[in-house]
Write a structure and sequence with these properties.
Elements (H helix, E strand, L loop, with lengths): L2 E3 L15 E10 L2 H16 L5 E6 L3 E4 L12 H6 L3 E4 L6 E4 L3 E7 L9 H18 L5 E3 L2 E6 L2 E11 L2 E9 L19 E2 L2 H5 L5 H16 L1 E5 L18
Length: 251
């Protein structure tokens, strides 16, 4: 399970699942990984203090990330070689091993309080997998879980990686769905530490490009249904360290 967690991975008791929880939606477009990570930390702190949950949907410039206990041997080039190819290498505090983020891939960062749902990290990861499976079905792609291999799969190929952190009940990080992603970037790593697995994308499976905005819309709808959320557009200024203004943002 790709979880970095400072709480027991069992359901939390004595809570009521919220209905129609007002949630900030951010769609800032192409955003550096470090900037998005810092914004998640600020938003998670606000949620712990009683603020609104949030969902960030974005793309990253070419970036390889390692989880908190990721194996550097699964990076098949030196960091200097990655930089020469225009890609960053960053170790984060999420669960999981190494993965790639880049243009054409939709990354979802939900900032949710699991205590409000009376649930724990395992339920949360399964919920993220269910969301991705539902979204792919909307585009005619049949995907599933794979026993013992977290994420979402089409046959033996992973189409979405999941790696999360839960701290004091609040989630950061999330999932990365390969839509129009350049899969050549994955040749320089052992994706998620699984040497016998391959990766795929919606474009590779369908043989055509997808409109990222349309896929994001389906992700938003799936989050609303699975987590009983009511979205309100927020300002992308928060990604840059400023307070939310309530103004709409998007590509």
């Amino acid at each position: 399970m790709l979880i970095s967690n400072d709480e027991p991975g069992v359901p939390l008791s004595g809570r009521i699942r919220p209905l129609g929880t007002r949630t900030t939606l951010l769609r800032p477009g192409l955003t550096p990984y470090q900037m998005a990570w810092e914004s998640q930390q600020r938003m998670a702190a606000a949620v712990r203090d009683g603020g609104k949950p949030a969902l960030i949907l974005l793309e990253h410039p070419p970036t390889y990330t390692l989880g908190a206990r990721g194996n550097t041997e699964h990076l098949l080039l030196s960091e200097q070689a990655f930089r020469a190819r225009g890609a960053e290498v960053i170790r984060s505090d999420r669960g999981g091993d190494v993965t790639f983020h880049g243009p054409g891939q939709i990354v979802a960062y939900p900032i949710l309080n699991l205590r409000a749902y009376g649930q724990g990290p395992v339920w949360y990861v399964r919920s993220l997998e269910a969301i991705v499976i539902d979204v792919l079905a909307r585009f005619g792609i049949v995907a599933a879980r794979s026993a013992g291999r977290p994420g979402v799969w089409v046959g033996d190929a992973k189409i979405a990686a999941i790696g999360v952190r839960v701290s004091r009940g609040v989630t950061t990080h999330g999932f990365a769905l390969n839509v129009n992603t350049d899969l050549a970037y994955f040749q320089h790593i052992v994706p998620c530490g699984l040497a016998d697995a391959s990766v795929t994308s919606m474009r590779q499976l369908a043989g055509e490009e997808f409109d990222l905005r349309e896929v994001e819309d389906e992700i938003i709808d799936a989050f609303a249904r699975h987590f009983d959320l009511e979205f309100e557009p927020g300002s992308a200024a928060f990604i840059e360290g400023q307070q939310l203004t309530g103004a709409a943002s998007g590509r």
